[in-house]
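Appendix B, record 7
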Amino acid sequence: MSLFKKKPLPPDAGGLTRRQAMELAPVVSRDVRAEEIPSGVVQLSLPVAVRPALAGLARRFGLWDGKPLRKTVELDAMGSAVWRLIDGKRSAGEIAAELARRYNLDAREAEMAVAEFLRLLGRRGAIAVVGREGEEE
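C-alpha cells (predicted):
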C-alpha cells in the first residue's frame, strides 16, 4: 500500500478520454494578441487576471489605474508551429499529426506534447476548445 498512490476516477467523473480530447478543435481567444517577431517565432500577449482584493489594494495606493494587465510570452519554434495550426477547424489530433510529420516525431509523442501545450494555453486563457459541431467545451 502506497501513501501516494493515485486513486482512479469514478466512471461518472466527466473526464474525456484521450481519443475524445484529440477530436476537439482549439480556437484562439479574442483577448490574445499574437505577432511574428524577427526571430521567426510567435509572441503572445495575454490578459492577466487580477484578484479583486489585490486590485482594490493596488488602486487604493495608486499602483494600478484599472486597465487590463497583459503578459507577454514568447513561444519556441515547435510551440509557434502549433500556434500557427490553431484555426478552430483542425482538431488537436490533426495538429499533432502535422507536428509529427514536420518534426519526424512518434505519433504518440506528438499527441502528448500537443495535448500538454494546449492544456497550458487553455489554463492561461489563450485558447478554448470546440467540438466538431462548433460548440464550445
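Remarks on this record: Residues 107-123 form the longest helix (17 residues). The longest strand covers residues 42-48.
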